[in-house]
Amino acid sequence: MTIQSAYIHIPFCVRICTYCDFNKYFIDKQPVDEYLDALILEMERRTQNANTKLKTMYVGGGTPTALNIDQLNKFLSAINRIFTIEGEFSFEANPDELTFEKVKLLKAFGVNRVSMGVQTFKPELLEILGRTHKTEDIYDAVRNARDAGIESISLDLMYHLPQQTLEDFEKSLNLAMKMDIDHISSYGLILEPKTQFYNMYRKGHLKLPNEDLGAEMYQTLMHKIEDSKFHQYEISNFAIEGHESEHNKVYWLNEEYYGFGAGASGYTNGVRYTNVNPVNHYIKAIANQEEPILTETRPTTNEQMEEEMFLGLRLNCGVNKNKFNEKFNTTIDRIFGQTIIELKNRKLIEETQDYIYLTERGKVIGNEVFEAFLLNS
Question: What is residue 128's predicted lDDT score, i.e. its pLDDT?
């Protein structure tokens, strides 16, 4: 199978957010230039004698816009030299870092989609989350991106936050939907180990809204989207027609992709891998001309079928039964027939001739539905 997508990880941030468990480091005194040199070498080596024409490229973090202009120029120049990106080229950004100068540079190198970590429009909540931007920065960043000619602009919003009311979330959602943007991603807060929030919660210094309120926020999100210019196409993602995240569809459709950078994950030739981490270990591995891989796993057929269900059910259209049958040379009913009947009886999934998909109730308790597709390997 020809790999047509790539994810690149830039693990640096100007400030570490209280809820974030991604692989990231405070940028001050980090060997950023050495990291970029190592990253470029990894991209060159891994794609030697391989396909370098890509349909999607996604640069995430960390915060890629934490890089300065010279670093961005060096990084983007290397991407353009190594790859030909024929479709979507996405770049994550913080609103206060997306200056017109930076976004103009991104556009000059072919970036056509920017995803901004907004999270909320309420100043008090931005402070609790440890965000560096202010509400007005959101408007400036969207204007800068649009003025530079970026074709698709996406905002991330969070719900189920400490001290957040339903009205707070509705207000942020309403403000986002009125902006000149094309896509919204919205996620409920999950307390992850090793985050500041998790440590605060364990010590009794953090109180979350109850689960029922989190579910109500999510249902409000879905219902408000129905009456807007956006449509829901995945559990947490909403777009104007033609502006869906093509790169993220690679994950949900369980397709293969390169993963470059410290701590990055990839899926190539039937093997899921994770790169070494932290940054200095990654740089050392590249300098020693070693594969910078920490773990490699080849999913069993059962695990691949489970993944096909977990990931595909995230999409509104659901799991394509014909594709499943072709991929695994068996029918979806033969493997999951009893589970499908039980979930249909509970009104958590629906079924057509070609697809199996989540109901609204199924989306609210999606993880419970996904767990039902675990096979006894």
Answer: 77
Q: Residue 61 has which token pair? A: 């973090």
Same domain flag for 199 and 90: yes
Domain boundary among 205, 235, 253: 253
pLDDT in tens, 139-192: 999 999 999 999 999 999 989 888 899 999 999 999 999 999 999 999 987 666
Q: Is the separation of the CB atoms in 52 and 81 below 8 Å?
A: no
- Cβ of 252: how many Cβ atoms within 10 Å? 19
Query: Residue 118: enclosing H or E segment and its boundaries?
Result: strand 113-119
- Residue 158's Cα: distance from chain center in Å? 13
pLDDT reported for residue 247: 98
* Domain coverage including residue 343: 318-372
pLDDT of residue 134: 84
Spatial distance between the Cα atoms of 35 and 140, rounded to a whole number of angstroms: 30
What gap in Å lies between CA 287 and CA 302, rounded to an integer? 38
Rounded distance between C-alpha atoms, residue 19 and residue 334, angstroms: 41
Segment 353-358 long-range contacts (CB within 8 Å, at least 24 positions apart): 353/321, 354/320, 354/321, 354/322, 355/317, 355/318, 355/319, 355/320, 355/321, 356/313, 356/318, 356/319, 356/321, 356/332, 357/313, 357/315, 357/316, 357/317, 357/318, 357/319, 358/235, 358/313, 358/318
Of 73, 76, 72, nearest in space to 85 by CA: 76
Number of domains in the chain: 2
β-sheet with 355-358: strand ranges across: 319-320, 355-358, 349-351
Task: Tell me which residues of the chain have a pLDDT lower than 50.
Answer: 19-20
Q: Nearest-CA neighbor of 369 among 311, 303, 299, 300?
A: 311
Please state the length of the chain. 377
